[in-house]
Design a protein that fits this description.
This protein has 270 residues and is an alpha+beta fold. It is 44% helix and 17% strand.
Length: 270
């Protein structure tokens, strides 16, 4: 492993849940954004980190053009999807060219259209990254550097991040097995369905309700990571809370902080 890749991993250890916006993950002050992104993707290819990226430019594909030439009212396509197709009908488009929907929902629709072959990716941008279980195990048990001539300089901050990580391991909050016990992502998805039906939240389940059900045995990070995985698989959507007046501080604090989308508060099944 390159020293700069190691520093990227150690940098991640300094954030809650070992997860952070990509803009906060410069291995050192001289690392440019393209190099930082290359490091992140390389580590992702090896399974040590996972990451989320947004589609920043997209274009229409021949199948999408053909769809626009027929009566769309007779096709299984929503108004929101149609707006995105129309935005890139004549030239490469950006998400900002479409006013509604907004935020992660817009990204979700764009990804869905890409999967259906109606539009294609032109450009993406990394948004955040997190350490995987495999990455944790690599740092705990596998990493070694016996190059006696290597000049590796770690800042006090990075060393502190690692020492805190080790203390958590020794304290039992991180170990060689996932703390998600016997619950799979599908189990969590079914729990969301059940709670939505039982509580009558009409497909707007507050995250604090899920935490009450699953924590413990799961940790806060376990729930957060499971929700992000389900979101990437387009099984759920997460949306921010617009009006806090109807909820207590404790309930609001149970949301997932997101630098770009605000506090993600509701879970919606797709």
């Amino acid at each position: 492993m390159e020293v700069i890749e190691l520093k990227f991993l150690l940098k991640l250890l300094g954030f809650e849940g070992y997860r952070a916006p990509i803009s906060n993950l410069q291995p050192n002050s001289k690392t440019k954004a393209p190099e930082r992104d290359r490091i992140c993707r390389n580590l992702g290819d090896r399974g040590y980190v996972d990451y989320r990226e947004d589609i920043t430019k997209f274009k229409i594909e021949p199948t999408g053009k053909q769809l626009l030439e027929v009566d769309t009212s007779q096709l299984p396509i929503t108004t929101e999807e149609l707006k995105i197709l129309q935005a890139c009908a004549k030239q490469t488009a950006k998400p900002g060219d479409v006013k509604k929907p907004t935020g992660e929902r817009k990204q979700s629709i764009i990804r869905n259209l890409i999967e259906r072959g109606l539009i294609g990716v032109v450009e993406t941008q990394l948004k955040e990254a997190w350490l995987t279980e495999e990455g944790k195990q690599y740092l705990l048990q596998e990493y070694e550097d016996d190059r006696t001539s290597a000049n590796i300089t770690l800042s006090a901050k990075l060393l502190t991040n690692y020492l805190r990580f080790m203390r958590q391991v020794m304290g039992g909050t991180v170990d060689g097995t996932t703390s998600t016990s016997e619950l799979s992502d599908e189990d969590i998805l079914q729990t969301i369905r059940n709670l939505d039906r039982e509580l009558g939240t009409q497909n707007y389940l507050p995250i604090y309700q899920l935490r009450h059900k699953l924590q413990p045995p799961l940790s806060r990070d376990d729930v957060d990571n499971a929700l992000y995985r389900l979101q990437r698989e387009n099984k759920i959507e997460l949306s921010a809370l617009q009006d806090e007046s109807d909820y207590t501080k404790e309930q609001i604090d149970a949301a997932i902080y997101n630098e770009f989308s605000g506090n993600l508060f509701f879970i919606m099944l797709t």
